Structure formats: structure tokens, C-alpha cells
Amino acid sequence: MQTRIEPSNIYKRGNSEQIMTLEVFSSAQSYMYKIVVGLVVLLVGFCLGILVKKIVFKILQQVELNSVLSKAGITYNMERTISFVVSFVIYLITFVIFLDQLGITSIVVYFVVGAILMLIVLTFVVSLKDVIPNMVAWIALMKRGKIKIGSKIEVCEIKGIVERIGLLETEIKTEQGDILFVPNSLFVKQKMWLKEE
To answer: How far is residue 101's CA from residue 104's CA, in Å, rounded to a whole number?
Structure first.
């Protein structure tokens, strides 16, 4: 007894295999499209990050931010730091858009991005832990008006003449001719003696 296969069943089986093959190719093509668009987004984002970093650095150099801050007693290279942070944020946003394009952005990615941004903010806040007390002490010193350029002063075993009063530190020239940079907060925390001439 032979079973007879009807031609319509063969046609249906072949048709469903073709449909399945077309669906696989269609989904592969769609995913490849997403990968290509994602790579283009990465390339454009990284190029944009480099370009913006250079532009911000040039603008800050034109404004002479470092020289302005050095007059205030801050000797850190803020031009380079600010331009780096701006480019890093652009890179981070680009990476998130890339992951979103691939369809793998999830709560975990947002959590990691949030943690990185929080780390940057905390690093910035911790770096200000010495700046804020010195700025407050500078305001107090200026308000009291006791310390002036040319005053003879002794604070915490440092004796000399005040050369410059900056936002964060005061320059004192010792009797040996050395110039010491004393944090302004030291004048508030320690006892100091002003010597009358």
C-alpha cells in the first residue's frame, strides 16, 4: 500500500520553507541595517566629540581661562580638563545612541551611564573640598582687611612679607628670599601675628 503525495501538499511545504527563508533573510537584513546605522552613529559621534573638544579648547584658550585662573591662584589646566569632559560626555551620549540603535539599551545601560556621570560629579565635588574653604577664607581676609600686600606676617612658623593675596593662596616672601604659597584657610584656622613696622 503506497501513500500517494498530492502535488498540492508538496507545493504548500515548499512555499512555507520559502516563506521561512525569506523571514530569516529579512530579519538578518534588518539587523545588518541596524549595525551599519549604529556604526555610522559611532563614527559621527566620535568625530563630533574630537571636533567639539578642539573647538572648546580653542575658545577657552582665546578667553585665556588658565591665565585668569592662575591670577586667582588656581594653577590647574582647566582649559584641557573642560574640553576633555565635554568630549567625554559626547562620547557617552554617542555610545548610548549606538546601543539604542542596536536595540540593546536597557535599564542596565542607563544605570551604568548614571553611575559614570555620578562618579564624574563626585570627583568634581571632592576636588573642590580644598577650593571652597580657601575661597571662604579669602573673603574673610578681604572683609577684615588686616592682611595687605607688604604686611609682615607670621603664621604657623612661616615668617615673611605678603607679596600677593590670591583667591586660594597667599604668597609670602621669607627673610631668606623664598616665596611660599600659603593656603588662605590656614590664616583662619591658625593663629597669626601681624608685625607693625
So the answer is: 8
Report the distance separating Cα 19 and Cα 10, nearest Å.
14
C-alpha distance across the termini of the chain, in Å: 129
**Interacting residues of 8 by C-beta distance below 8 A, sequence separation 6+:** none
Closest CA to 113 of 130, 93, 129: 93
The CA–CA distances, whole Å, from 36 to 12, 39, 45, 127 equal 36, 5, 14, 41
Is 79 in contact with 62 (CB distance < 8 Å)? no
d(CA 58, CA 80): 10
CB 78 within 8 A of CB 65: yes
Using the Cα atoms of residue 24, residue 26, residue 31 and residue 33 in order, give the sign of their dihedral. positive
Per-residue pLDDT of the chain (197 residues), as tens digits, is 555 555 554 445 556 666 667 677 777 777 788 888 888 988 999 999 999 999 999 998 888 888 877 777 677 788 888 889 899 889 888 888 888 887 776 766 777 778 888 988 888 888 777 778 888 888 888 888 778 888 888 887 888 888 888 888 888 898 888 888 888 888 877 776 676 55
